[in-house]
Design a protein that fits this description.
The chain has 3 domains: about 90 residues, Fumarase C, Chain B, domain 1 (Orthogonal Bundle), CATH 1.10.275; about 230 residues, Fumarase C, Chain A, domain 2; about 80 residues, Fumarase/aspartase (C-terminal domain) (Ribonucleotide Reductase Protein R1, domain 1). It is built from 19 helices and 4 strands.
């Protein structure tokens, strides 16, 4: 019986393979093999013992089932792996785990998992960024009413919105690149970080192990790699999830029936929107992404709580990390992949965008009028008050916005009705939107 949706619903097979039970065991065995090979290289154990350990570790004969059986008996997860590997290594079993402590294996195996999962997160970020960039380029001149505080604000373009999102994803890629050397780090200096059990060549053995596994080598550790590394990763993944939720929330809002400016792709031939309201086309992908984004962010707090371990270490981080790292990585890749598909197939309704601009009315051009009056010699504060007063009269239904403006002598003395009508055209007040889209797309790495 499966309980966690990651096991059967949310997550890719690749990520499940990396962070699943078998994936974790495979990488722990690889670490034990790398330890033996490195010790053999410096003359600490016989080369033939290292070869036998490597063969047993990579043979597939050490199974999760056998490890679980041993752990049920001895109540120690890493020693269960060691004992199961020893059973398969013959006489070479005497050299397995020599001089190591549990977190030498656990933390280095964690780093292996992160090394293999990192490109999947980067690929997800890049794919979503590229889909957003495609929309930005296609719609750089597509007029849309901008909204602040949920209210009509000023004209903008849909392409500029998408360009802002694309650049945001580019920053996440930069964060991932910068953080990788700090996060993807193993360790092999024993129980309190001195390397005493490995003898005079401990530092060399640690370096050889990390070189073999293509992991970063820490400068100094206690019994564990310090959890500030994992807290940094948790923050980056939480930040990515927050951005993705923001993008998906915009889709949800713009798909509202009374707005209707974008819509998720919908298979009209067979897709069901509601179990009872057969007419519905709900933004289910966007809603799914938003919900899972909240789950990703909820793991940031325990990641920080895992940093202040007692003395050289305690075990409070261990149980939490069985959830935090794996769930964040699996779910982050999933929401990135689903969001890339969402934006790659997004239906953009230009006509609805134009209709909403017209429905917003001419007073969304209030700032443009204020600036035009200021250019013609009216003080900025006076112009602001005149435009505000005219807007309030228009909202009350007393008269149209342009009429209300021209009824103010200080306004009509500064601008003609024809010039005012030109100022009230939304197309004339998108500023540098198209240029900004081009700059944004050109900045993508």
């Amino acid at each position: 019986m499966t309980v966690c949706p990651i096991e059967y619903r949310d997550g890719s097979e690749q990520m499940r393979d990396i962070f699943g039970e078998e994936g974790k065991l495979r990488r722990m065995l690889l670490v034990e093999a790398a330890l033996a090979e490195s010790q053999a290289q410096v003359g600490m154990i016989p080369p033939e013992a290292a070869a036998a350990i490597y063969e047993a570790a990579t043979s597939g004969r050490v199974t999760p089932q056998r490890v679980t059986e041993i752990e049920d008996e001895i109540r120690h997860d890493v020693m269960a792996v060691v004992k199961a590997l020893t059973e398969q290594a013959g006489d070479a079993g005497a050299y397995i785990h020599l001089g190591a402590t549990s977190n030498d294996i656990i933390d280095t195996a964690n780093a292996l998992q992160l090394k293999e999962a990192w490109p999947l997160i980067e690929a997800g970020c890049r794919d979503l960024r590229d889909q957003l960039a495609n929309l930005a380029g296609e719609h750089k001149a597509t007029l849309q009413v901008g909204r602040t505080h949920g209210q009509w604000a000023l004209p903008t373009t849909f392409g500029l919105k998408m360009a802002v999102y694309a650049v945001e994803m580019d920053r996440h890629l930069e964060r991932l690149s910068q953080a990788a050397p700090r996060v993807i780090v193993g360790k092999f200096l024993g129980a309190v970080g001195t390397g005493a059990a490995m003898g005079p060549k401990a530092l060399e053995i640690q370096r050889l192990i990390m070189d073999r596994l293509e992991l970063g080598t820490p400068v100094a550790t206690l019994q564990t790699t310090q959890r500030d590394r994992h807290a940094e990763l948790a923050c980056i993944l939480g930040n990515i999830a927050a951005s993705v939720e923001k993008f998906a929330t915009e889709v949800r809002n713009l798909q509202r029936s009374e707005i209707g400016e974008v819509q998720e792709a919908f298979d009209a031939s067979k897709q069901v929107g509601s179990s009872t309201m057969a007419h519905k086309r709900n933004p289910i992908s966007a809603e799914n992404v938003c919900g899972l984004g909240r789950v990703v962010r909820c793991f940031v707090t325990p990641a920080f709580e895992n940093v202040p371990l007692w003395h050289e270490r305690d075990l409070t981080n261990s149980s939490a990390e069985r959830f935090t790292i794996s769930h964040q990585m699996v779910l982050t890749e999933y929401i990135l992949t689903r969001s890339a598909k969402l934006f790659g197939n997004l239906e953009v309704n230009k006509e609805a965008m134009r209709a909403n601009l017209e429905r917003a009315g001419p007073d969304i051009m209030a700032e443009a009028v204020m600036m035009a009056l200021a250019e013609r010699g009216m003080g900025r504060q006076q112009a602001h008050e005149a435009v505000r007063a005219a807007s309030m009269r228009a909202h009350s239904g007393e008269m149209e916005f342009a009429e209300a403006l021209m009824a103010i002598p200080e306004v009509s003395s500064k601008i003609s009705r024809d010039d005012l009508e030109a100022v009230l055209r939304p197309e004339a007040y998108t500023g540098h939107a198209e240029e900004l889209v081009e700059l944004a797309l050109g900045s993508l790495k």
